[in-house]
Amino acid sequence: MAAVCQVTGQVPGFGNNVSHSNRRTKRRFDPNIQRKRYFVPSLRRTVTLNVSTKGIKLIDARGIDAVVADLIAKGVKL
Fold this sequence. Notes:
This protein is of the alpha+beta class. It is about 25% helix and about 35% strand. The protein has a single domain (about 15-75), classed as CATH 2.30.170.40. The protein has two helices and four strands, in the order ββββαα. A two-stranded antiparallel ribbon has the order 1-2. The chain is elongated and about 55 Å long.
C-alpha cells in the first residue's frame, strides 16, 4: 500500500538519521496511513479509503458525505 492519504494528500517526508558521531544516513518519515471502510449514505454503499489519522479526524469533523463529494469532484476513483 502506498504511503499516501487519499483525503489530505499527505506523502512521506525525507530526512536524515543522525548518529552520535554526527554521521548522516537517509531515512523516510511515513504518515500514519490506515485502511478504513466507511458507509456513504449518498452512494448507498461502503467505500474503502487509505487515510492518515489527520484524514480520519477531518472525516469526523466534516462528515463522510462531504469528503467523498470532494474526492469525486477531484476525480478519485472510489
